[in-house]
Amino acid sequence: MEKAQVGITGANAVTAEEGSIVLAHNEGNIFEVMRKKKHIVVTAIDKIYPSVEDALNMLKVICYKATGVLIPSFIEVLSGVSKTADVEKKFFKGVHAPSEVVVILLDNKRTEMIEKGFRELLYCIDCGNCLLHCPMYNTVGNFFAEEKYLGGKGLAYKSLSEEEVNKKLEFCLTCGRCRKNCPLSIDVPGIIRSIRSESLPGEIYYFLKSHLLWLYYVTRLKLS
Question: Cα–Cα distance between 171 and 27 in angstroms, integer?
Fold first, then answer.
């Protein structure tokens, strides 16, 4: 890593107003990446925010909902290549790394989701608060939804992006606790209902099946 001349990170936000990249971290590892000559940022179109102020407000919500703290340990705002006028009062670029910044924005079917009417999924800030209040996740854990996919929202997202309805969506109780405890009030149950069934009889089938599955696992846990 010390010999590498290129560093790659994601981004918590890319601001439209200032053209800045906002990075949050707690261990300080990103400092090592930002010392490289070339910094490549790979992120998605749903990470674009109007301004740095909006991005910082988002970070405050993530931290409070996910860990209970008010702000991350470190926040980096990268607004282009390094520059200074300290050397003989002359303006220089690239004196401090990075001297080149490349931003790659991925779509990965996000535009298609918007066109299909699932724009709300892209509002998610990935705080994970929905998992804390999901009865199915708290009963069967990762068997229902791996933490990296953030509960029902993540499974719905995967189903839309991979063009194959994830069978684990059958486990969703559509109880609405995720929406109630979401800082953005994203209607995850409504989205899941829309994905897994287009008709009322079909939704009744999924509703009964998910609740029976939940009762089965709860009973098994109590007996074990």
Answer: 36
Tens of pLDDT along 79-88? Answer: 887 777 776 7
pTM above 0.90, yes or no: no
Tokens 């590498």 map to which residue?
A: 4
Inter-residue contact 192 to 120 (CB < 8 Å):
no
- The span from the CA of 161 to the CA of 114, in Å, is 12
Assess contact for 168 and 153: CB atoms under 8 A: no
CA distance 191 to 210: 16
**Domain shared by 100 and 138, yes or no:** no
Token pair 């560093």 is at which residue?
Answer: 7
Q: Alpha carbon of 123 to those of 15, 35, 167, 179, 185: distances in Å? A: 15, 32, 24, 13, 10
Q: Which residues form the domain of 119?
A: 110-223
Whether 78 and 138 share a structural domain: no
How many domains does the chain fold into? 2
* 66, 132 Cβ separation under 8 angstroms: no
